[in-house]
Design a protein that fits this description.
The structure is a homodimer of 449-residue chains. Chain A has 449 residues and is an alpha/beta fold. Chain A contains 15 helices and 16 strands. Chain A has a 4-stranded mixed β-sheet. The first copy, chain A, has a 4-stranded antiparallel β-sheet with strand order 5-14-15-16, covered by helices on one side. Chain A has a 4-stranded parallel β-sheet with strand order 6-7-8-9. In chain A, 59% of the residues are buried.
Chain lengths: 449, 449
């Protein structure tokens, strides 16, 4: 009847502000990979289903120190940059791009390079509990298809972007689309190949319209990508007002804000995900909210390149669509856990301000702090909503994208369910993630488990 | 002739701004636990020493993906709070203290509790590459001696504080010294027991004069502790201007700044380490610098409780003594690697400002960003200098406190020595730390290695 039944304690968001802990539950997963039934231990059917699952040998029993969590959605990452994670963060943006990032991405013209890096990266994501990722590729069609193929092989739900960057003023000669026409034609080819691959494999492989960011693209490319998104009803990803420089660039070139430029090319839709947004004005945010465009909050990367902290608390209170992104390699860590921690910490720094020479009343922003429950919601339900994918919750109708993590309870002290949740969020590292499921299928198992 | 010879590539600070990488070196460690000789591969003695070490079976050969680093010095941590690491960080300080921290510390009246928590914590520190720690204990003599004993057992260099907190206005009835007289007498007993234990074990076990912080102590306790520090020529640890609240408290009670209060009780010496300091004024910093008092920078904890970022770059340029502290459990992570990453990120946030509603020119602080080399220096040489201990460098005359870590080179791409250094600093987790030595003695070996 089911393909997998999990017996144990789980955490799942109720809403933006609340996480629930259900102890000793049975989570029953059907052949489609969806959760069909969740039974509490007081349910009359509980013992019968438990016994049946045991008999059918489809039962996964959690130990007392194991917990079930939804898999994370990484809502913004540059897959090729995995090869330079943690490098060059002491350099200014221009050197980071020209001495490291662009030369690295240019190497992905070589399919062997793509295969080696993407094989490693996709496995790393799964081992960190990330079950869905919205990824930039490069400008290379074959490499991007390789990324999708590898994602399907290992079981990651993959949203992959064929990057467009054709503006000669803002891109190096060795790493640029020939012109807007070839960029658009490559994107359309990519869309078609991806559809074929999705049909063939049955995996979640979604092509994504991907203007690198406004500065990298000509007007014609931006316009053409807006049309392709409409024609094929596709998700869109890009960056918006990521830094002082990017925010000002749009004003200089278009006499409009970055968000308005994207909107003018029909690139802000309810399937769009825009990364960073640290320099968005209140009006810009309203525009994104009106278009139901999500923001991928990248808290680690924003420390280095954001020139400010995204006011997440305010966006939540305005019901903005929000998720969490690692932004490899503007952020150094592929772990969504690490990004959750930084999201909370950075929000406190926004509330308190940073420069103690200023008066405490003047240097911070009232009511900016988010809770770990807020951050967890963003990394699970928020990411799923942004991608129109039923993932991020443990309840019937959602896909069974899960991680099983080991807690390290202290030798003495607290053990309320909120304490356990906090400790899991603040201390889980790769070594503590023991099994990962996508659609009820085991896609990662820690060595030695 | 030597007790251990290590053959491989190492990183060690040259000065505050520069890290050197020496490839294929021989590090020769004498019976005293000190490095006696470092030979480069071009040295005429190299081959001879290598062969001799191999013959004597005292050679540790690093593989191509292993690197030798100095062990880290954690310059500020509360050992008992290990039992609540990662908990309650969503709460305001008062609830964090009264609902979690004080009740937890009060449990250390029970020696079994102390034994269990400290046994776990000391092993955790070593497994993270921390070879020396300056630690707050609790107000309980037996528990503090237990911490020292356990540190000696596992080989951690331990600076342990018998905490004094006797001010009824700022401490709960269930967790407070009876009065200043008994607090001082306990401290003196602790000093004497520690001297005995140090003599008996030969380990680095240093008693530390430890007023919790100015608010927790009566004038008499502060004065008495200043006298004890002088009488026994001991290190001193406390907190200084950790938050807006603490900074203002001293002004309200003494009409002086927190640093001036400490100084007036002779608690700022060249053996003092004061934690946090985020709200110190320029004059306060000058006073600490004049007294040669070190600041323990706790970047993760400061996100939550600091109300601002310590201006490390400016302090470095004024040759201030600085180290890195995890501040368990104000900070959630015992990993100095995690704290190094946050130190760099927070400094960038100080430079850029956080609230994008303000003008970029007004919201940040010019020239505040530190490099990873700065942070590494603080966690190694800086910590050693603060404690007057010859640790933190790999060179003759320094103690052989080392960690061997495994790099994960990317499948393609850069491999300059600076790239390797950056990657090690930004990506090393507990699972990558393979062996740890203190004084040339193996004190930790990763399971499975």
């Amino acid at each position: 009847m089911y393909k997998l039944v999990i017996h144990g304690t789980y955490f799942s968001s109720v809403d933006e502000n609340h996480v629930q802990s259900i102890e000793n539950a049975l989570i029953c997963i059907g052949d489609s990979g969806q959760v069909e039934l969740v039974l509490s231990s007081s349910d009359p059917l509980f013992e019968e289903e438990l016994a049946r699952a045991r008999k059918q040998d489809i039962l996964e029993e959690l130990t007392d120190s194991q917990y079930l969590l939804p898999g994370f959605i990484d809502l913004h990452t540059h897959a090729p940059q995995w090869a330079q994670a943690g490098l060059a963060l002491d350099l200014p943006l221009e050197k980071w791009l020209n001495n490291y990032t662009f030369p690295l991405e240019a190497h992905f013209a070589d399919e062997d390079v793509a295969k080696a890096v993407y094989d490693d990266y996709v496995q790393k994501l799964l081992s960190l509990g990330t079950t869905t990722a919205l990824m930039f590729g490069t400008i290379h069609l074959e490499a991007n298809l390789m990324l999708a193929k590898i994602a399907a092989k290992y079981g990651l739900r993959a949203f992959v972007g064929q990057v467009v960057m054709d503006n000669p003023d803002q891109t190096p000669t060795y790493y640029r689309n020939v012109d807007y026409g070839s960029a658009l034609s490559l994107t359309e080819k990519f869309i078609n190949f991806m559809s074929e691959m999705q049909e063939k494999t049955g995996a979640t492989l979604q092509p994504v319209i991907t203007p690198r960011f406004v500065p990298s693209c000509t007007d014609e490319a931006l316009a053409g990508l807006g049309e392709l998104a409409k024609k094929y009803d596709l998700p869109i990803q890009s960056h918006v007002s990521e830094s002082n420089w990017e925010h000002q660039y749009a004003i200089n070139r278009f006499e409009m804000h970055d968000a308005e430029v994207l909107d003018s090319f029909n690139l802000l839709t309810d399937k769009s995900v825009m990364a960073h947004g640290t320099q968005l004005t209140v009006d810009d945010c309203s525009l994104l909210c009106k278009r139901q465009t999500a923001i991928a909050h990248c808290p680690i990367s924003n420390m280095y390149f954001g020139n400010g902290v995204l006011p997440v608390k305010s966006l939540i209170s305005h019901h903005h669509k929000l998720g969490i992104g690692s932004d490899i390699s503007g952020g150094y860590s592929p772990s969504i856990y690490h990004n959750l921690r930084q999201a909370v910490g950075s929000s406190q720094m926004l509330e308190d301000g940073v420069d103690s020479r200023m008066n405490p009343q003047e240097r911070g922003r009232d009511n900016a702090r988010i809770t770990m429950a807020n951050a967890f919601y963003m990394a699970t339900v928020g990411g799923g909503d942004a991608l129109h994918l039923p993932v991020g919750k443990i309840e019937p109708g959602y896909l069974a994208d899960f991680q099983i993590v080991r807690d390290h309870p202290p030798v003495i002290g607290q053990k309320s369910s909120d304490d356990i949740f906090q400790r899991l969020m603040y201390s889980t590292e790769e070594k503590d993630i023991e099994k990962v499921y996508v659609g009820g299928k085991l896609v990662y198992k820690k060595v030695g488990e």
